[in-house]
Every structure is written in C-alpha cells, then in structure tokens.
Amino acid sequence: WSAEKVGYDCIVIGAGVQGSFTAYQLAKKKKATLLLEQFLLPHTRGSSHGQTRIIRKAYEEDFYTHMMEECYQLWAQLEREAGVKLYRQTGLLVMGPENSQDYQMMKNTLQRNQVPTVILKRDEFSSHIPNVILSDGDAAFVDTTAGVLYADRALRTVQFQKLGGVIKDGQKVTDIKPGPVVTVSTSGGVYRAKSVVITAGPWANRLLSAHSVVRINVCYWKEKQPGLYNVKRRFPCFLHTGSKEARDHIYGLPSNEYPGLIKICYHNGSETDPDKRDRQTDRSDIDILRRYITHCFPGLEPEPAVVESCLYTLTPDRHFVLDCHPTHSNIVIGAGFSGHGFKFGPLIGKLLCELSQGEVPSYDLSPFRIRRFQAKMKSAL
Ligand SMILES: Cc1cc2nc3c(=O)[nH]c(=O)nc-3n(C[C@H](O)[C@H](O)[C@H](O)COP(=O)(O)OP(=O)(O)OC[C@H]3O[C@@H](n4cnc5c(N)ncnc54)[C@H](O)[C@@H]3O)c2cc1C
Ligand SMILES: O=C(O)[C@@H]1CCCC=N1
C-alpha cells in the first residue's frame, strides 16, 4: 500500500463513459484529477462496453431533447480534437401505436423543438423502410439527426486524451472518508482530494437502494440475405415504443459491426447482482424478441446468432441521478443512467465537473435530484 501525500483537486471513481468524461472535463479545466477503476481497462463488466450505441433527440421529455443539442456539439468537438470518427448519422425510425402516450409524446417533443423529423405515412412506409412490417394501428416517423455512436472507440478516445489527468485501473475503491479533504482507499493505495465524483454504474446501487440492476441480453440477428438491414444501405436505427409483443421498448441498430448481423434488444432484463451477472440465465427477453422479429422483421432468422451481455442501472422513474451527496456537498454522484445515458456522456461529464467544483450547473438539474428517492437512500457514507 502506498499513501500518496500529494492531494488531487478531484478523484473520480469508475471509468465507464460517465466517469471518463468527467475526468476529461476536469483535466481540461487544469484540475489535478485522478480516475480510479476497479478493473483493468478496457473491460466488459459494466454498462459502457460494446461497439455501438444510439444517439437521438427523440425523447418524451423536453429537457433531454434540449440537453441533446449540446451533446451533439460536444461529440463533434471530441471527434475534431482526437481526429477520430465517433458518430455516424443513420436516422432513428420510431414506431408505435399511433394513439399511445409514449409515441405521441416523442413525436410532439421533436416537433415542438423543431428537430428535423419525417412522418412516414402508412402507404409509403415500405418504400422508405423495406423488410420491416408496420403493425396494424402503428404509426412511424424518423428523427433524421439520430445515428450510431462508436462506443468502445469513444471510451478509448476520451480516456487517452493527453490532458494531464492520472488513470489508475485495477484499483477497487473500498472506503471513502468524507470531510473537507476526502480520503479514498483502494486495493492499491490511499488518495486524497478536495472533492470526489462517484460514477460507479451498477455498483452505485450499494449507495442507492432505489436502483435496480438488470442484465441485458445484447442480441445480434442474422440477415437471411446479407446486407438487407445494413448501415451502408441506409437502414436506420429504430425504436419501437409499444409493440404487441412487449411492455417495454424494443430497439435496434443497423448491421455494421458484425457482418450480416443486426443488433436488436429489449429495453429491460432480469434483476442481477453486478458481480454475479453470469449466473443470471433468464432468457424471457429473448423469447419476446424472437416473437417480435418473426412478426416485424421477415428478413431475419428469428434466433439470435450472437448474445453478449451488458448491465442497466435503473431508477424508479428512469431518469438519471446528478447531484451532490445530501450531507457531503463535495461528494458528487452520477448514477442511474437507466439504459439511455451513453449519448449524454460528454454533457454529464461537464455537469458532474461543475458540481464537483461548486459551480452553478449549466442546466436545471431538478429532474435528477438524489432526494427524490431520499426515503430509500442507504447510509453507506
Ligand atoms: C445493452 C445496452 C445498450 C445501451 N444502449 C444505449 C444506447 O443506445 N444509447 C445510449 O445513450 N445509452 C445506451 N445504453 C446506456 C449506457 O451505455 C449507460 O447509461 C452508460 O454506459 C452508463 O455508464 P456509467 O459510466 O454510469 O457506468 P459503467 O459503464 O458501468 O461504469 C462504472 C464503472 O465504475 C467502476 N466501478 C464500480 N465500482 C467501483 C469501485 N468500488 N472502485 C473502482 N471502480 C468502480 C466499474 O468497474 C465501471 O467501470 C445502453 C446500455 C446497455 C447495457
Ligand atoms: O438510449 C437509447 O437510445 C437506447 C434505445 C432506446 C432504449 C434504450 N437505449
């Protein structure tokens, strides 16, 4: 064990997308920053691994759509700084029961905020989107600015921007002692800082019992004819807000990373412990997807060709937690990203950095207050 005498301005705990962007924003502001990660990097045990994620402005709530305006700019800025391509525009096809609340709210939010949107009439649907069946009663529109983020590449890029911060991986944080100077103990050392940001993903549920962690079976499905749903043939990302087969959303990304395979997933899973996820063998989500694909995607084999796994950390209302600890204001928490946080990474990093430095955050963070679950806060700190 080494007790480092040198203090940091800020220690960030957890090098997933949110912690990595927080450390990046802090280092950009010339703050002495330490990013601690329990596993050796890169790893596939949390929520941020995998080749791709969807980026979109289509949300039911205005506040997410507003935040996405800046997110697109920040992603583009990182692409320029690092000279790498992180985003590919594909559009997002949104399908759902025409009169349902989810579908209408998403469509209205986009229109209210003047986001470029194309409404697809039923009789022209198959000429725009071949090889997909629009179910009876469903309607469709396209959020044209949406697309794919290259997730693994993005994480590598943000972690290895040479900004002067320190990353220590393979060091699990075992204790946090609050105070004007916070002391953080890990399996490899003891570190001190003026503030700490906790971005521990699924492991944050040890602090916030209102969260639940679910395992997502990330399924890839084989095209009957190679290329039918390929990104090069301009097949879009899609989101089905309420199919006959499922209570929760079903979503997909065009075939790209694995030749001939398209990623289609169910936006929920079975509850698990992040350290025991491999023991979770429930495949009821895959049964839902099989039925859905048989009905809506006639060009796919209705049996997954590849199944990977990833974790969601769900809050009861599916909104994030971005706040200071209720009793220790120099400890900041970014958690509960509920399966939709990747696209916000650069902005979450900026906001958590602002909170850690005692600055007024650049957005209204009231939807993300930790106190909305106060009755269920664990007293781990
Ligand atoms: C299958 C799947 C599909 C998704 N699709 C999309 C999408 O299309 N679009 C989108 O925007 N979002 C999507 N998401 C959501 C998005 O990926 C997550 O919201 C995001 O990755 C959460 O990042 P995080 O940094 O909070 O968590 P994580 O990536 O889990 O990072 C937390 C890190 O903290 C570390 N850690 C925990 N405890 C400790 C400790 N004690 N000491 C040291 N380190 C510790 C962990 O090892 C981990 O590396 C998807 C998620 C999944 C799983
Ligand atoms: O965040 C996203 O865009 C995806 C798709 C919808 C469900 C969750 N993640």
From TrEMBL:
Gene3D superfamilies: D-Amino Acid Oxidase, subunit A, domain 2 (3.30.9.10), FAD/NAD(P)-binding domain (3.50.50.60). Pfam families: DAO (PF01266). It catalyses: L-pipecolate + O2 = L-1-piperideine-6-carboxylate + H2O2 + H(+); sarcosine + O2 + H2O = formaldehyde + glycine + H2O2. One of its GO terms (biological process) is L-lysine catabolic process to acetyl-CoA via L-pipecolate. Its EC number is 1.5.3.1, 1.5.3.7. It comes from the Eukaryota. Keywords: FAD, Flavoprotein, Oxidoreductase. Residues 9-355 form the FAD dependent oxidoreductase domain. One of its GO terms (molecular function) is L-pipecolate oxidase activity. One of its GO terms (cellular component) is peroxisome. Its cofactor is FAD. Metabolizes sarcosine, L-pipecolic acid and L-proline. Belongs to the MSOX/MTOX family. This is Peroxisomal sarcosine oxidase. It comes from Myripristis murdjan.
